[in-house]
Amino acid sequence: MPSSSRSAKDFFRPLAVGAPTPPTEIPARPSRAIHFFDPSNAKMAAKIPQMVGSVDVLLGNLEDAVKADNKEAAREGLVKIAQETDFGPTQLWTRINALDSPWVLDDLTTLVPAIGHKLDVIMVPKVQGAEDIHYVDRLLAQLEAKAGLEKPILVHAILETARGVANVEEICGASPRMQGLSLGPADLAADRRMKTTRVGGGHPGYLVRQDPDGSGEEAINGARTTYQQDLWHYTIARMVDACAMHGIYPYYGPFGDIADVVACEDQFRNAFLLGCVGTWSLHPKQIAIANRVFSPSVEDVTHARRVVAAMGDGTGAVMLDGKMEDDASLKQCLVMVELAEELAAIDPDLKKQYDAITLPGEDA
Ligand SMILES: CC(=O)SCCNC(=O)CCNC(=O)[C@H](O)C(C)(C)COP(=O)(O)OP(=O)(O)OC[C@H]1O[C@@H](n2cnc3c(N)ncnc32)[C@H](O)[C@@H]1OP(=O)(O)O
Ligand SMILES: O=CC(=O)O
Ligand SMILES: [Mg+2]
């Protein structure tokens, strides 16, 4: 039973007469990169139609990073772009302003009637608890009913306050519209009073140091290897569990050091390995990084397919390359194979690479 004040029998009922029926399952649509753009920035906005098809999600950002004086222009700009663009296979998302801001009500009451039929997901920032999702859920149902929408708009929460992290499970289970969660490391760091000044990524001061080679002062002050740690491990791990428990999807968030494409790739990969399905892209050059990292490698898909083939009916244990494989490793391999199939369906380059895989005993 979802963690909600609604009873199980009411959970999937529309919250307004005439609103579309909420989904009982959230589709696993590829969303490796959620690419942010400011619809009030003419140069950026002009690039959006050409980006369709090259990125899984285009997100018109209305919140932080849009100047207060441009909030209305951003909202109107998004309406125009959405109305004039055929998004084909690319999803259209928006990030609305915070629920306590002076702009959010107009965001929702403008966007849903104007472009609700094109909006796949609304990202809600600074979500503190289930009550925030309940508010958006009801308002969306009312607006969808009024606009005559047939498909419910999904909701994505950014986890970027200490209270939000403490309430992560109830947020994920607050509505059948919940599509997923993103980490908001910049706001979260501020809210937690962390002593960082960056937008995501690691910090050279957050480390562990190799033990001294002996007990004297010389050993203590001598050369000792240090290992930088991931500041976001705890929060991402909590997000992944909460999302998996509720059948929704976790994402890393922003990586603000646009020039450092290497550390960006590392941060994205940590999130991918822990269970995230995608990340944000703030600059066009981060899209290729996200697409690469959040697509299983040909080597991993090859191995996964070999395990699937070796495991026959999926039970028991077999040896492959000197390693034991059984029902549980098979399940991990199926995650990889299914993801590869989903991505191949929308990415012709990946499809070519995955289709070229041949297993021992198969014809090339
Ligand atoms: C903590 C958070 O809330 S994170 C989420 C909020 N932040 C954002 O959404 C930031 C989005 N990104 C941006 O605003 C910009 O990319 C910035 C400010 C980071 C860098 O912008 P610039 O200094 O203009 O980058 P740069 O000069 O490399 O841009 C190259 C080209 O790409 C365009 N471009 C830059 N970012 C984007 C983008 N996100 N989408 C589309 N086009 C973009 C620029 O307009 C420029 O176009 P041009 O060649 O026609 O002049
Ligand atoms: O909104 C994102 C963040 O890091 O804050
Ligand atoms: Mg934020």
UniProtKB/TrEMBL annotation:
Mg(2+) binds at E160, D187. Its EC number is 4.1.3.24, 4.1.3.25. It is an enzyme of class 4 (lyase). One of its GO terms (biological process) is oxaloacetate metabolic process. Its cofactor is Mg(2+). The keyword Metal-binding applies. Keywords: Lyase, Magnesium, Metal-binding. GO terms for molecular function: (S)-citramalyl-CoA lyase activity; magnesium ion binding. Residues 1-24 are annotated as: Disordered. Substrate binds at R95, E160. The keyword Glycosyltransferase does not apply. Residues 34-198 form the HpcH/HpaI aldolase/citrate lyase domain. Gene3D superfamilies: Phosphoenolpyruvate-binding domains (3.20.20.60). PANTHER family: CITRATE LYASE SUBUNIT BETA, LYASE BETA SUBUNIT, PUTATIVE (AFU_ORTHOLOGUE AFUA_4G13030)-RELATED. This is Malyl-CoA/(S)-citramalyl-CoA lyase. The lineage of its organism: Bacteria, Bacillati, Actinomycetota, Actinomycetes, Propionibacteriales.
